[in-house]
Amino acid sequence: MADVTYYVALPFALDDDGPVAREGTECTSAHAAIMRAEVLSRAEGHIGAVAFSRSGDPMLGEFSDAVLLRAFGDVPSDLSGL
């Protein structure tokens, strides 16, 4: 199977240990992920959000590192775990 690129908007909330990721939303394009992340960053209970992409082969479960498209609000500086 050929590589596939996924676009995701991921919101963050604040808990006792600091910022934590909430459930991400898969989007149809980079632009859609950026727009959705902006909306999520302003939603009640969220302190920020990021839009990112990942490419890889889902059949093999091999994916490249996430590529940050845009960040909104107060998000962790280390997003290597995406």
How many DSSP E strands?
Answer: 6
Strand content: over 45%
N-to-C order of helices and strands: EEEHEEE
Q: What integer is the average pLDDT?
A: 93
How far is the N terminus from the C terminus?
23 Å
Largest sheet, described in full?
A: 6 strands, antiparallel
Number of helices: 1
Could you tell me the radius of gyration in angstroms? 13 Å
**Spans with pLDDT under 50 lasting ≥5 residues?**
none
Helix content: 10-25%
For the record, the count of structural domains works out to 1
Overall shape:
globular
Secondary structure category: mainly beta
Structural overview:
- By secondary structure, this protein is mainly β.
- The chain has one domain.
- It is 15% helix and 46% strand.
- It has one helix and six strands, in the order βββαβββ.
- The protein has one helix spanning 30-41; strands at 4-15, 18-21, 25-27, 48-57, 62-63, 67-73.
- Strands 1, 2, 3, 4, 5 and 6 form a six-stranded antiparallel β-sheet that branches.
- The longest helix has 12 residues, at 30-41.
- The radius of gyration is 13 Å and the shape is globular.
- The mean pLDDT is 93.
Comma- or semicolon-separated keywords:
about 80 residues; mainly beta; 6-stranded antiparallel β-sheet; 6 strands
List the helices and strands and how they pair.
Elements: E1 4-15, E2 18-21, E3 25-27, H1 30-41, E4 48-57, E5 62-63, E6 67-73
Summed up:
This protein is mainly beta. 15% of the residues lie in helices and 46% in strands.
